[in-house]
Amino acid sequence: MKWPLAFAAAAFLAAPIAHAQSFMCEDQFRLDDALLACYRLGPEQAPPPLPEAPPPDPFKLRMLQYAALALQHRLAGLASYYSASLDGTLTANGERYRQHRMTAAHLTLPLGTWVELTSRATGKTIRVRVNDRGPYVKKFAIDLSKAAAHALGVDVADDRWVDIRIIALPGEEPLPEGVLTAAAP
Question: What does the longest C-alpha to C-alpha distance in the chain come to?
């Protein structure tokens, strides 16, 4: 009598242990019909391809490139202008300086870069090409030819502060004039 009772007690105690071993096993997970539908019915139809994005605007790409370049250079400050006695001397890119041309000197911008200058005092805006290095006095940001200084009005203005905006890198045509004002916030 002891053996059957011991056997029954062992079977009774073994059932919870067997159940404990299957806790959190695969047989406890129930998958819903929506999840199994793709296995019963085959793969679902692929979604239609997304429409291709339009090509980026080349002017906006150039302006982003110029904005990134502008962070590396001083693009606002006082403007100075060349002395008339320097007419005919060589500039940093090998050209002769001519005081009647619309050129400028900047310490760090690449030679051949086109910039747009706006005078704070006069409100005038001009476009010049950087063809020389300078000015070498810390308080000045850009050195203008006589013609550029006169067109901008900084040769007679009390306030010589100018804002400089890059409009073309060497080898590029300058951006059209309406593009910069339309894109400005």
Answer: 129
**Helix (H), strand (E) counts: the chain:** 5, 6
What's the total number of domains in the chain? 2
Question: Helix, strand, or coil here: 54?
Answer: coil
Same domain, 71 and 105: yes
**pLDDT for the residue numbered 60:** 86
Query: Cα-flanking dihedrals φ and ψ of residue 104, to 5°?
Result: -150, 165
DSSP assignment of 147-177: HHHHHHTTTT-S--EEEEEEEE-TTSPPPPH
- Same domain for 90 and 29, yes or no, is no
**Whole-angstrom distance, CA of residue 147 vs CA of residue 10:** 109
Residue range 20-45: mean pLDDT, rounded: 61
67 has a pLDDT exceeding 80: yes
